[in-house]
């Protein structure tokens, strides 16, 4: 994109904006239309399903009336076989919804008959015929339509079945148990049934038409298909909706089965187990017999008209966008012609040809003002390059001088370790990390005579080059005076007077110094406003040395300093540091602190002094993480091994 011309980018931006607006409008319109179609389709399917369920329940309730009436009559009074048969024949012949009916008496339920008696009347052709269900080996008392209502003690609708001993057709049966109370005891008399052929129910459900391939189906409470588009599934207890879900690897279908058999109503989106296309299934219960009606709505047919209309809109939109692209290209080419001329001149200027002439532009619009600005820029650029050349040379000279100053400052400090390999009484190690190229921290140590070691650590109040110069002066004064004066307090007194004299910059330095007797372990030390070093002893807690009072060096002439004395025992260690260690900040502004430094020193007390300082530096860096170093960091560690052997 960055290599394209302004006209090309302008064309792309306009086309991008146009396409974006179109897609937003098209997407919004498509989504709202799809939602409206889906809602209308669901509402239509809901009305259709509700109406169908109402028709089915109306028939079922009408069928229930006569068996319930006969049950009430038989409960109240005895009835003869002739009356039973007459009532059943009239019921079947007068009710177009009923395929067959029977009163199946229990043994002894009808006093006139001493054997199983169950006259079954059913339609055949244009008439009604009767068959005795107890004849020819058909033991009706073991059939579900007989046993279930007797055990439940209430009317039930049976699962669909094929009645081989009765009407020899697929049917479902409404069964009413008949009881009579005799001498205070409830006695079972018979089961009165009314059969409805499944073909009748199938005709009602098949009247539901949902587009080209939509259909309806009915499930029993045991998830068996009563009516379905596929006849292979009907009335097969080994091919319920759950088995179909497992075969099709369709968990949504299993969930649908759970909801329908539980008598719930609602809508589910899923994939058809037959076509694998997206469908919506609206389901509602048939409350009379506990079954459920489902209506399958194919989404591809539901939105087919919307898809066709959308393709037409897209074709028209693409044609319009192409026309806009041609128009924008022509306009952009003419509008950017002066810009191309300015671009060519600017390229010459960018290569350093600042004397090149700019094209004449007479127009005073944005392009004309741009040409005038280019001319002013060319003039200013010539002057700027001249100034930049001089500034760059000066900056490079300063950077070079800073590198030299850093090297000189580093040479001021002892940097060879171990510094006294022939002395076995002690080890000493120090490290300094400046926050800038040069810093204000300092450390020093040197042998005064055969048995005395001088050492010091200091921190100048400023940073950078001024602090480095002040540090160099301080270190030079310290060493020069210490070679003639062994008393630490007097050394600080004399160095302070020298630094405070003509100190117009008001800089100062904190400093701790000490003289160690390498034979006896006696340490004489003094302090000028510096942090107390840590004393590390075996089997003891790390603690800070008790410091005498003392003003920082360079603040005021005539300041007095005091000494303190302590005798080190064999293997004692001293850890000196500047406040760059304890005040090192993490990224969230938390200081490293004296407590953390003491904990690190305690944890690594048994290590060598170089390992000890390395552990402290590692802990400080880990605490700071990515935070910038704000102050110089200096550590000096001293280990006195004990009085040397003669």
Describe the structure.
The two termini are 84 Å apart. Helix 1 runs antiparallel to helix 8, helix 10 runs parallel beside helix 11 and helix 11 packs across helix 12. The model has no long low-confidence stretch (mean pLDDT 83). The protein is elongated and about 150 Å long. Strands 1, 2, 3, 4, 5, 6 and 7 form a seven-stranded antiparallel beta sheet that branches. A five-stranded antiparallel beta sheet has the order 9-8-12-11-10, sandwiched between helices. Helix content is 44%, strand content 22%. It is an alpha+beta fold. The chain contains 15 helices and 22 strands.
Distinct helical segment count? 15
Computed CA radius of gyration, to the nearest angstrom: 53 Å
> Can you count the beta strands?
22
The major sheet is characterized as:
7 strands, antiparallel
Q: Which regions have little confidence, pLDDT < 50, spanning 5+ residues?
A: none
Strand % is: 15-25%
N- and C-termini, Cα separation: 84 Å
Shape: elongated
Helix percent band: 40-55%
Whole-number mean pLDDT = 83
Helix-strand category: alpha+beta
